[in-house]
Amino acid sequence: MHYLDNAATTLVPEEVIAAMAETLRHHSGNPSSQYPYGQDGKAVAEKGRETIARALGCPKERLFFTSCGTESDVWAIRGAVWHGRHRGKHIVTTAVEHSAVLESCRWLESEGYQVTYLKPDSTGMISARQVLDAVRADTVLVSMMLVNNETGCVFPVAETARLLREAGSAALLHCDAVQGFLKVPCDPAGWGVDLMSLSGHKLGGPKGIGALYISPGLRNFRPLLPGGGQEMGLRSGTEATAQIAGFAKAVELRMENYDEKLRHMADMKALCREKLLTIPGMVTVGGGTAPHILAMSLPGYPSGNIVSDLGSRGICISAGSACHKGKSSHVVSALGLPKRTAAGVIRISFAPETSPEDIQALYEALRSHQAERCGML
Ligand code: PLP
């Protein structure tokens, strides 16, 4: 198999599997239990929190485990609007956020909120100035992702935080950093971001674990799940110790030779783009600069067909224009591409393990697909 769909999820390294197995086998007590076997489990969770917080550059007391990036996004948004409930009912976000953010905003619209969805330019970018121009006195939340999951565009979150601060806005700033953490600079505490969502399975961790950073200024942030008072009283539910151990081990592995890993992903992306651009008709989509995500299109060749044909040849990539009954994804639609280009958008995404052989295999499979399908156009 040639796995080139690392923005969807990543393969789980053996070391992560071993850390999870070790936790399940030997430290599986309930962290709330007071005897040593329970306290062992607590130690695993706290050590994991420390590892991830260190990589994020925040105090470990401000990092709260959740079950996934989606849960972190939903918690951040619901908590932020509750926090600002006496000030206003306006939200600013982008039209290209993950559906966890967009669907939360749509639900809030049905509850009487007004939401401004900022449109990207043709390269997929949103500027900090666009955000600031949309912010009003009654804006309670700005939600802007760090890296777009389909184009790889890196949004100016640090600059947005600075402009909001300089303008004296009281709106909270939430950043969905699910695709950005450990791929591009990410410093919520230093930037002055209030809330940041993370997910374990985008960087070698298991599925089913995420985290939310809540800034020290938000002392009374609204709890997500009432109950036994785990996660410092904000998110009850017995801690998923094995998932936490796996997430932390994955972060630890990504931190080893960090710069080299980023350079390797960027090199693989550059190689892939160069190689695929030799295929007649192939074009680059958007101007994404994240090292691990590349969007391209083969106009006239529907991406759904490409993905399933390549899948049967052992090559895993995604359709940028997800095949929801032939309709483009909301991200591809927002780019305003010609119809045939939009229908052919594919996403190739890289990991530190990606090799030139994976890219050669992708290239050959795309050439075969093109050769076999040209009669059908
Ligand atoms: N946000 C972004 C930008 C994502 O790409 C994803 C997953 O694809 C999510 C949120 C949701 O994360 P999870 O799968 O952990 O719920």
UniProtKB/TrEMBL annotation:
Gene Ontology molecular function terms on file: catalytic activity; iron-sulfur cluster binding; metal ion binding
UniProt domain Aminotransferase class V: residue ranges: 2-362
Cofactor(s), by name: pyridoxal 5'-phosphate
InterPro entries listed in its UniProt record: Aminotrans_V_dom (IPR000192), Aminotrans_V_PyrdxlP_BS (IPR020578), Cysteine_dSase (IPR016454), PyrdxlP-dep_Trfase (IPR015424), PyrdxlP-dep_Trfase_major (IPR015421), PyrdxlP-dep_Trfase_small (IPR015422)
Alphabetized SUPFAM superfamilies for the sequence: PLP-dependent transferases (SSF53383)
Domain of life: Bacteria
Any matching Pfam family: Aminotran_5
Keywords linked to the UniProt accession: Iron, Iron-sulfur, Metal-binding, Pyridoxal phosphate
Similarity comment: Belongs to the class-V pyridoxal-phosphate-dependent aminotransferase family. NifS/IscS subfamily.
PANTHER family recorded: CYSTEINE DESULFURASE ISCS 2-RELATED, CYSTEINE DESULFURYLASE FAMILY MEMBER
Annotated protein name in UniProt: Cysteine desulfurase
Naturally occurring in which organism (per UniProt): Vescimonas fastidiosa
